Amino acid sequence: MRLLRIIAVLLVLTGSTAFAVDNQLMLQAILLKENSCGRVGKRGETGPWQMMPANVAKYGGHDYIHAYSMLLDVEKDMREHRVWLSAYNIALYWNAGPKAMRNQAPIISYRYAIEVQQIYNQLQSSRLDHPAKF
After folding, report:
1. Are 71 and 56 in contact (CB under 8 A)?
2. CA dist 12 to 21, 22, 24, 40, 80, Å?
3. What gap in Å lies between CA 35 and CA 41, rounded to an integer?
4. pTM for the predicted model, two decimal places
């Protein structure tokens, strides 16, 4: 038990992000999953990250800066609801919205989250295997 406390203190003091989600990789994983190629989704989603029309209006567009702002808001909502920030949970929330935190997401959103998490893990492994490329 004492060892766990020491490790926790060291992580806090060093500001380690070993367990944090890399936002840049997360957006890249979502982008690779969406692979929109300029299409408009069934519910009006647009842009590379297939953002809903209400989100495009809220964030002012659908390029990287706006998607990053949306991702930060997703993470903020998840923290407020005490939801673990993982690639899977972020992808689930990105796809299903706030209802994901109430366990009301459609089955397809859970599949989406699994696929995005797999892409994220592959990107993370690639980064570890070839650190000079990033």
Report:
1. no
2. 16, 18, 22, 44, 20
3. 11
4. 0.71
Burial class (CB in 10 A: 0-12, 13-18, 19+), 14: exposed
Using alpha carbons, select from 32, 35, 33, 55 the residue that is nearest to residue 44. Answer: 55
C-alpha span between 132 and 134 (Å, rounded): 6
Nearest to 117 by CA among 98, 93, 82: 93
Q: Which domains does the chain have, with CATH numbers?
A: 19-133 (1.10.530)
- Tokens representing residue 21 in the block: 């989600």
Q: pLDDT digit string (tens) for 21-80? A: 888 898 889 888 887 566 777 777 767 777 777 777 777 776 777 888 888 888 888 888
Report the C-alpha gap between 106 and 113 in whole angstroms. Answer: 11
List pLDDT tens digits, range 76-102: 888 887 778 889 988 998 888 888 877
Distances (CA, A) of 40 to 36, 103, 124: 8, 27, 29
